[in-house]
Amino acid sequence: MKIYFAGGWFSPAQEEEHTRVGNFLERHKNLEVFNPRTAGGDFKVGKETDHMTQVLLNNCKAIDEADLVVAITDYKDMGTLWECGYAYAKQKPVIYYCETLGDKPFNLMLAKTGRVARDIDELENLLVDKDSYVFKQVHSFDGLVE
To answer: What domains can you pick out in the chain, each with its CATH number?
Structure first.
């Protein structure tokens, strides 16, 4: 299965979570993981426009080719949220990973457009569940929404 792994890495907390979850995904022998950070997407301010265009096109192509998108939604990285919207529009299933959610409300649009994992164990369970790899236009969500 091809996984597109979305998530920001632009602060120490984001970088720690992104690295830890990315390593978890990479350990799965049955998963082929596309990680924008390690695929040349580690964009820095001031890089040339051609590089920015290439990052965008490579990421879109990888989402197009993915069977599933796993997206870290902690810290609400805008690029990650854009990738999730693009994936949904392309009818790609999405798992939203949000370990800092706790009992707080989750975003309504995300809650209704994908499955939710609040920790690594829940992510593991969703990754082995064949239903996670089937696009659904609307999902149910057990929790508060905002």
So the answer is: 2-133 (3.40.50.450)
